[in-house]
Write a structure and sequence with these properties.
Layout: E1 3-4, E2 7-8, E3 14-17, H1 21-32, E4 37-41, E5 52-55, E6 58-61, E7 67-68, H2 72-79, E8 86-87, E9 95-98, E10 101-104, H3 109-114, H4 120-133, H5 146-153, H6 157-171, H7 181-191, E11 196-199, H8 204-216, E12 220-223, E13 227-232, E14 238-243, E15 248-250, E16 253-256, H9 260-265, H10 274-281, E17 285-294, E18 304-307, E19 312-316, E20 329-337, H11 345-359, E21 367-379, E22 404-406, H12 417-438
This protein binds flavin-adenine dinucleotide.
């Protein structure tokens, strides 16, 4: 334990700031290799955006959450002994919404021919897209935007919109002019071979398991504690953190697992820091979400729909994962928001309710509970052409502040969303451990035991 009878022991801990999936993962890796770790979370609850809230027996993730089987996060979590337990949603019977009409969503060669969504010429373009996708050299396309690539590759408006809808559902991004098509197509290539999982009990199941592992490894977790400032010595090296209460906590190193804006604010006395630059440059991806619990579905077969001409998503997660009691239904409707959207929340909510009227007419009769999130950050870094996709994201070590490390969905070059968070968390733990071993000060470390 770091705290003994209200006073900190002489051995300085690594302070992990943020108790979301990234913070918990970094803390587990460090503590399991015998480093002294103190995790500070400003909210009373752990989990950050991976929290699941419970209402009348329904488990509400914060908007629709799915984890890709076999991707980086799945692999690292499984290696840590975390059960990633859920079901694979079925694509059969999925719908496309175009000009407020419902069509069969084409996922296979047969459905491309049978759907009424496309003209014959559009069908040929879509077939060509799927048959050539695997052979595209995505590394050559990192500087090309989704919009430019779509315009030059496809002739027809509906095909272009269909491909952009595919981009949105795979990456959450609705910024075709900004996004690197190389990164996006690589993600789609992987996605076509690896399905997503909706998790039983919601993403909280990951949070609880990581919390248990952290406690078992000796991490001290303090929630309801906000860090306000990272203190440094004259050489600029991290010496501790200051809490919002004014309390000073000494630290051998710190890992910030929060947004770039929060990371930058923690060293606000260094306005020229790389953190300040990243917090200005990175473009977040935001979504509006309507999370709905029903006693039953009016249209039992309508389990998934994707907007083609509008950036909409609809999915009944309880059809796949245990998220609702008995016959109850937990579904998510979402709008992929463009960057810097200044949309009227009332209008967005009406839009999402309108989508639900279309796919589940009469749903209000069966309503148990609904929650609207007008604008929530899904990830803090759009993979832009300017950054060459994920390659230009900040690394885990802050170059101009010794002893300061980062993890989150905007850090490191591996993966998007949870994959980036978990991959960077593991890497941040590894580099922090290395720093402690090589550091010139008294550190709470034993030799590093994390494999890369
Ligand atoms: C609507 C929505 C849908 C999503 N869907 C998917 C999906 O389908 N697939 C996918 O892979 N990902 C998805 N994501 C993204 C995924 O939830 C996040 O990438 C992941 O949970 C990020 O975890 P994190 O720990 O990096 O950040 P967060 O979860 O944001 O954790 C940061 C933590 O830091 C704490 N904190 C902040 N400031 C301080 C401070 N000063 N002191 C102490 N603590 C502080 C915060 O309270 C928070 O708990 C979705 C996100 C949203 C919002």
């Amino acid at each position: 334990m770091v705290m003994t009878n209200g006073t900190f022991s002489a051995v300085k801990p690594v302070v992990v700031i943020g108790g979301g999936l990234a913070g918990l993962t970094a803390a587990v890796f460090l503590a399991q290799s015998n480093h002294n770790v103190l995790l500070l979370e400003r909210s009373p609850n752990l989990g950050g955006r991976a929290q699941t809230q419970h209402k009348e027996g329904f488990s509400f993730n914060l908007g629709p959450h799915a984890i890709r089987h076999g991707d980086v996060a799945y692999t690292i979590l499984s290696e840590m002994g975390v059960q990633v337990d859920g079901g694979f949603p079925s694509v059969s019977g999925s719908l496309a919404v175009n000009r407020n009409r419902l069509f069969q969503l084409p996922f296979s060669p047969v459905s491309i021919f049978t759907t009424g969504l496309f003209s014959l010429a559009e069908k040929m373009e879509v077939i060509r897209f799927f048959t050539t996708l695997e052979s595209i050299d995505t590394a050559q396309l990192l500087d090309t935007s989704v919009q430019d690539w779509v315009n030059r590759t496809f002739q027809h408006e509906t095909t272009r919109n269909f491909v952009k809808a595919f981009v949105r559902v795979t990456t959450y991004g609705n910024a075709p002019e900004l996004m690197s098509v190389g990164t996006v197509l690589a993600q789609i290539q992987f996605a076509l071979k690896h399905q997503v999982l909706y998790l039983h009990g919601g993403w909280e199941s990951l949070v609880r398991q990581l919390e248990q592992k952290a406690l078992a490894a000796g991490v001290e977790i303090r929630s309801g504690v906000q860090v306000r400032h990272i203190t440094r010595d004259e050489a600029g090296q991290v010496t501790g953190v200051q809490l919002a209460t004014g309390e000073a906590v000494p630290a051998a190193a710190a890992i910030v697992c929060a947004s770039p804006q929060i990371a930058s604010s923690l060293v606000a006395d260094k306005p020229d820091s790389s953190l300040a630059r990243w917090s200005r440059q990175l473009v977040p991806i935001n979504a509006a979400c309507l999370d709905v619990a029903l006693t039953r579905l009016p249209e039992a077969k309508h389990l998934f729909a994707l907007g083609i001409d509008q950036p909409w998503y609809y999915s009944v997660h309880s059809a796949t994962a245990r998220l609702a009691p008995g016959e109850g239904v937990l579904l998510h409707v979402a709008k992929y928001l463009p960057p810097q959207a200044a949309e009227d929340p009332k209008q967005v909510r009406a839009e999402l309710e309108g989508l639900l009227d279309l796919v589940q007419p009469g749903w209000r009769e069966f309503l148990v509970h609904q929650r609207f999130l007008p604008e929530i950050p899904v990830t803090h870094a759009t993979p832009t052409t300017e950054m060459r996709g994920t390659l230009g994201r900040p690394g885990v070590a802050v170059p101009d502040i010794a002893g300061l490390f980062l993890a989150g969905d905007w850090v490191g070059s591996r993966g998007l969303l949870i994959d980036a968070s978990i991959a960077s968390a593991k890497e941040a733990a590894l580099q922090t451990a290395r720093f402690l071993v090589n550091g010139s000060f008294q550190a709470a470390s034993k030799p590093m035991a994390i494999s890369a």
